[in-house]
Please model this.
Amino acid sequence: MPEHVSTLQLIGMAALTLATVAWAAVVTRLLRRNRREALAWHAARALPAFPHQLQAAPSRETVELTPAEQDAFAGLVRRLGGRSGRAGR
Model:
């Protein structure tokens, strides 16, 4: 025990340390409990900004291309694909 510190000061310091540890434990428990409750509340709550989906999405539509259209599309893909590899164009 240091000579310049009284017994009353040591008891006070021990009490403050104990109170700080107890306060930290209580705050930690409260934060964890509130986090669990908040997560459960958010999971149970529906998003009000999105309307409810009453029906399924429409079926996909396809269009058959003629051979000329297929060739034109292939040429476009080749031209655009070749441009990404060249610098300065």
About this structure: The mean pLDDT is 82. DSSP finds two helices and no strands in the chain. The helical segments are 7-44, 67-85.
